[in-house]
């Protein structure tokens, strides 16, 4: 977007912490009026569901997307979208509305996401994650705060492992949790940079970080990245986690989905680079080229959808572009084209791309369409379903969602309780 397109800040900052303006190491980008003015492009201006509803929907629908994509293991591990949609037709009349999830277990995605939620609302952090928390990258004690949060997260991730029976957790998560158990809680960041750590284990569980820290971008970036890095210490793994959390924060802030990718490229990635290189001081030599490749892949996706950049003249007119025929077969093929080894959505980067593509191609408030596109495909469908439905809930609440899909969902009371606690924290801010 051209800088002259918008006047200087209208007072409505993208993220309200002072740190957004002073501590990213790239003043020119943070001062861009264009970024702040994007906030004016909110959706649902007239009929916005309450924040309470959207937080609850975000937490509950994560489990719904997971359970439907998983279908007790049969749909997650069915590699043909066509076969899955045939089963939907034969057994449920082709309608998502007919799915009662009462006997559909949630998988590892929901169990881990619940552990993330429990971290963010943990009593040990009540004194730290206080109202008006405005600490940023350059403030004294920033990494100490990150450390305190991550120590709790380790405890929750280790504890949740007891509840993984019949939920198909990934091998990398298993190995990393075992490693963490051996090295004890204070060694949460001791995992080596790992060329095999690019799976979606981080992105499937990070969304609620974006809910809790939607007003503190520096903390969101740090905790988003570290939450993934805990088990998946590769750029693809931990940046997938960051994007998952970030897009949930964009959804809560009602930023138009078509702009999310642009914001990542223009505003977020420079801050991530600064955090990794200069704040957390990670293995920059290894990270730098991998981060460039991660960026290029995401750019390619945005380019194919026509939402790589915006100008003052075309920002209203630009709509994400999709092929005229974009059915089950075409989507399977397209999703797969972004996969690491043919299983679409199983990596940190393509889990985000598939979920984002499903959200964009379905359109606002199109729940049924979104479930079919995010949860019912021949890839890692429980993860892409969990992520996409989380964002949907944060954007639209329970609008057009079928009660039958969530009224009996496993873990419902825990998810609602955690949603209430997150809301309390947000409202205190
Ligand atoms: Mg799963």
UniProtKB/TrEMBL annotation:
Its EC number is 3.2.2.19. Its cofactor is Mg(2+). InterPro entries: ADP-ribosylglycohydrolase (IPR050792), Ribosyl_crysJ1 (IPR005502), Ribosyl_crysJ1_sf (IPR036705). GO terms for molecular function: ADP-ribosylarginine hydrolase activity; metal ion binding. Keywords: Hydrolase, Magnesium, Metal-binding. Binds 2 magnesium ions per subunit. Mg(2+) binds at residues 107-109, 380, 382-383. Pfam families: ADP_ribosyl_GH (PF03747). Residues 1-26 are annotated as: Disordered. It is an enzyme of class 3 (hydrolase). Specifically acts as an arginine mono-ADP-ribosylhydrolase by mediating the removal of mono-ADP-ribose attached to arginine residues on proteins. Belongs to the ADP-ribosylglycohydrolase family. This is ADP-ribosylhydrolase ARH1. It comes from Naegleria gruberi.
